[in-house]
Specification:
CATH architecture of one domain: 3-Layer(aba) Sandwich
CATH topology of one domain: Glutaredoxin
CATH class of one domain: Alpha Beta
Number of strands: 8
CATH superfamily of one domain: Glutaredoxin
Strand order of the largest sheet: 4-3-7-8
Largest sheet: 4 strands, mixed
Number of helices: 8
Shape: globular
Strand content: 15-25%
Length: 194
């Protein structure tokens, strides 16, 4: 199917900086660089590590306006998407989906029962996993960071940077890390509205 942009729509997209995200049959917005996997978390962690990346799981749901905004405003921004693609393998989960998931503790679940088990109730929620799969832990116990909800560009991007730089392993809390970057952006005149 060929999509044609009318001059008005093209001007609107250019003026707002918003790009329409594709929506799959499950009602979730899609990025062509998301990884489709068998949802075996330990295996996905190993696959990401073999590519020199970290595993990030994004929980979304049909009709989520915050998920749509994340796709259209954040994941369509080349500065954000290029960093994520270079450093993370991203697997999308449907908070109310029935696809099979294998937790790190070996339990087989559906996406929706995994979300309940791990305590994730907001969409989007991004879960950052360790570099290697720990044995006997669940995903929420093993996660090195979790970002529940939608944020502005710099909070969103800085969380991915902080995890990539293993900030969680040191003494500098994410909020301090983020504040330093925001201050530097203000001083350089690059800060957009957060």
């Amino acid at each position: 199917m060929i999509k044609v942009l009318t001059p008005f729509l093209l001007l609107t997209l250019l003026a707002t900086g918003t790009v329409a995200a594709e929506v799959g049959e499950d009602g979730l917005h899609k990025q062509d660089w998301f990884t489709i996997s068998f949802r075996d978390i330990a295996e996905d962690i190993e696959t990401a590590a073999a590519e020199g990346k970290r595993l990030a799981i994004i929980f979304e749901q049909r009709g989520c306006i915050y998920c749509k905004a994340m796709h259209e405003k954040l994941l369509s921004d080349p500065e954000v998407s290029d960093f994520i693609k270079d450093h993370f393998m991203v697997v999308q989960y449907n908070m109310f989906g029935d696809e099979e998931v294998i937790d790190l503790d070996g339990e087989t679940l559906t996406e929706k029962s995994a979300a309940r088990k791990w305590g994730y109730v907001f969409t989007p929620t991004i879960v950052f996993l360790p570099e290697s799969a720990p044995e006997g832990k669940t995903v929420n116990e093993a996660a090195v960071a979790t970002m529940p909800g939608a944020f502005g560009k710099w909070t969103f991007l800085n969380m991915f940077r902080w995890v990539s730089e293993k900030g969680y392993a040191g003494d500098e809390h994410f909020q301090k890390y983020h504040a330093i970057i925001i201050n530097d952006l203000r001083e350089s005149g690059r800060l957009e509205t957060e």
